[in-house]
Structure formats: C-alpha cells, structure tokens
Amino acid sequence: MNTIQQKLAGAAFLLGICLTSNVALAQNAVRTATQQGHGAFVSKTEQVYDIPNASLGIPTLASDAVLPMKQVKFVITPSGNSTSVLTGTLPADKRPAQRVVFNSTYTEIAEGPTKGQVYNTVAVTEPTGAVTYTGTLKGNGKGKGKAKK
Q1: Which phi and psi (to 5°) does residue 147 adopt?
Q2: Partners of 91 in the beta sheet?
Q3: Partners of 40 in the β-ladder
Q4: pLDDT averaged over 10-residue windows placed end to end, the chain, 149 residues
C-alpha cells in the first residue's frame, strides 16, 4: 500500500513539470485520490497547474509562456500505470489555424521513488482553443506498484 502511494505521489509530481507550483500541491493531489475497483487510485480534484509551452508545443505562444490547465483525470494502478489529463483553453488571439499535436517525454528529477522514470506526454491543441495535455507512465504489470526503471 505504501508503494502505491509513493507511485501516486510521483505521478502527481508529473503535473509539476517545470511549474511554479510546489510539491505541496502534488502531495495534495495524492491525498485526494480514492481507491477504485481492484486497487486503482483515482483523483477527483480539479487542481490548476501552469503548464509551460515547452511541454505543449503551441506555435502561437511564446516559448516561455505558460497555460493554466485544470487536472480533470488522474489514475494510477497497482501495477504502476498512471494517467494524468489536464485541459485548458487558449485566448482567441493565440489559437492555431489547425490542430497541433505535440509529443514529448519528461524525466522525473525530484528525489523519491519515481526519480529517473520517463513519462510520455502528448498535448493536443484544437483550432477552437481547447488544449488537452496527457501524461502516462507504464508500470511493470505485476500489480506491485513498481514502475519500470
């Protein structure tokens, strides 16, 4: 149980990618997660994070700009698989003419059980201004809550 909570804390920290928020916010997301079904933890919070454009790849935003995004989904399973989904909206004058999909990775640098693990991220920006940012981490599939190293 302690291991899954550690994984949950590490996955929640993914949301702090280069953010101005602090670890206390990530720990708050972990505390609000509830266990569902066969051990998956689901967070129902609507935490807001400033996601940097370096992670979103929106060509109409400055490279050092951030977009406030609300976490709408956070799930982590006992096998260590985790998914975090955030949504946001671009101002009308910053919306791209066509859909933009930006894939990247994020390597956890914070001390803790997920240090060094690589998260896959994808940001999708629609011409309507809707932005969806998803981060995933694949675990080991053994139900022990330990992600691959």
Answers
A1: -85, 160
A2: none
A3: 36
A4: 49 40 36 55 81 94 95 84 90 95 81 68 97 87 48
